[in-house]
Design brief:
Family: Belongs to the GatC family.
Number of helices: 3
Structural class: mainly alpha
Order of helices and strands: HHHEE
CATH class of the domain at 8-44: Mainly Alpha
CATH architecture of the domain at 8-44: Orthogonal Bundle
Pfam family, one: GatC
Largest sheet: 2 strands, antiparallel
Radius of gyration: 31 Å
Catalytic activity: L-glutamyl-tRNA(Gln) + L-glutamine + ATP + H2O = L-glutaminyl-tRNA(Gln) + L-glutamate + ADP + phosphate + H(+); L-aspartyl-tRNA(Asn) + L-glutamine + ATP + H2O = L-asparaginyl-tRNA(Asn) + L-glutamate + ADP + phosphate + 2 H(+)
Strand content: under 5%
Strand order of the largest sheet: 1-2
Protein name: Aspartyl/glutamyl-tRNA(Asn/Gln) amidotransferase subunit C
CATH topology of the domain at 8-44: Histone, subunit A
Organism: Halorhabdus tiamatea SARL4B
Shape: elongated
């Protein structure tokens, strides 16, 4: 890039806000990198817009109520239960 959209003083200001210490060599390197990043975003501006799809359909199945286990059946194979609930190990 011949003309940078970012100058080293802006990089120093952003680094100060982020509490990052940059030496002069790093500031120059980051200035070039930021300019390259901004150029990449300018390239994205050239991507044509796409019309959204107008007809979207729900591909999920509808919810259906089905019979489930009763409380006694659910607790039948539990290693431990108490007052109608599963009982697990104490977490400390």
């Amino acid at each position: 890039m011949s003309e940078s959209a970012v100058d080293p003083d802006e990089v120093a200001h952003v680094a100060e806000l982020a509490r990052v210490n940059l030496d002069p060599g790093e500031r120059e390197r980051f200035t070039e990198q930021f300019a390259d990043i901004l150029a990449s975003f300018e390239t994205l501006d050239e991507v044509p817009e796409v019309d959204p799809e107008t007809e979207l359909t729900n591909v999920m199945r509808p919810d259906e109520v089905e019979a489930s286990l009763g409380q006694d059946e659910a607790l039948e194979n539990a290693p431990e239960s108490e007052d109608g609930f599963f009982k697990g190990p104490r977490v400390s």
